[in-house]
Design goal:
- By secondary structure, this protein is mostly helical.
- The protein has one domain.
- It contains six helices and two strands; from the N terminus they run αββααααα.
- Strands 1-2 form a two-stranded antiparallel sheet.
- Helix 1 packs antiparallel against helix 2, helix 2 packs antiparallel against helix 3 and helix 5 runs antiparallel to helix 6.
- The protein is elongated, with a radius of gyration of 20 Å.
- The mean pLDDT is 88.
Length: 241
Amino acid sequence: MNNKFWIATVPTYTMIIFILLNITAMIFYPGGNLNDPNQVGYFFRYNFFSDLGMTVSHSYENNMISCILFNLSLCIVGFTFGMLFLSIRNLFSDFPILSNLATILGIIGCISFVGVAFTPSNLYLDSLNDPWLHIIFAHWIFRSLSGVSLLYSILIFKTKNFKNKYAYGFILFGILVLAYVLYSEIFLKDPRVYPEYLIRHVLSQKMVVIWILFSMYFYSIGVGEYLSNFNSNINNESENS
């Protein structure tokens, strides 16, 4: 168990980098939102995160600076959390089926982060002018991580000396992500047809994305703490013997 670098250290820097890259991308975003091409700049309540990743903004201006910064942040998140999932796959060796399934779902979520980065929402449009590839990857981020939260909650409860507060955190994480999926896909109407729904879509998306990143960071802290205690117990046993 020598993967603490990927488990505890890198996620911390990833969170900082993600925040800085996105704030910078928001500053450089030219303007426009889904329903108003005349808007100047980026508005937290009117613009999706994915607006930052467009090659051309809703105001029909070049958006390559924001595009590169935002999509780079998604790639970093996807790679970092992918390494996190791979690094902890043997942590729950007593429950290989659940652990491997959680790892697979986690990797799917991480690939989806990268997939969103490589399919800007103004490209690869279908006959209805929808960014179908972008939507597929975005949906699978939330769907796969909902499953991950459930599986890791069970694994934490089953693992001795792993604090259950992290399992409860994952349960709350899963409930909120699932609630977002149901809310956005069933109850919210298309904001292009019903502009009054745009703010609800935007703010709920931002809330769940921020919550996902915070939860994964919180989980990495828990795993790092568990590893430290595990290694400490091994060292104590070696000294006593």
